[in-house]
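seq:
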Amino acid sequence: MLVSFVILAVILTGMSGWAQMQTVPPHKQALTQAWVQLKSLALRLPLALIAAGFIAQLLPQEQVVAYVGSESGITGILVAGVIGALLPGGPMVAFPLAVVLIEAGAGQAQMVSLITAWSALAFHRILSFEIPLMGAKFALRRYLLSVPLPIIAGLIALWII
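struct:
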């Protein structure tokens, strides 16, 4: 955790120094954009986490552990990938759900698969954005090429953990 913080601090310091040397430093615009995003998240994130806490009380822990627990292995990675691909909504749904599932006994590798599938394979985004904007042929090719990603990410996480 400390190593990640130090790396991010060094990157941020370097980028801030580089930006300051520009003829028109972009700090004010960046702070304005950050403030807009923070205001949006400041209300949503606590509410999403509270809702996720309530959902956690409703989840049967035995079934969570059986289907996506750390001992479920590749089967759990596949199940989590399917759940992630079918999971509607944005990050205020996906991440609190992953937190709740981890608290209910889900494995970390399985949650890596869930979040990766939600990011790359979310079916609702394909129907509402990708097919209308990019066409069905492109969407199908991209989807088929992306199907292995949650499995690969989950297996790598399983290997690392």
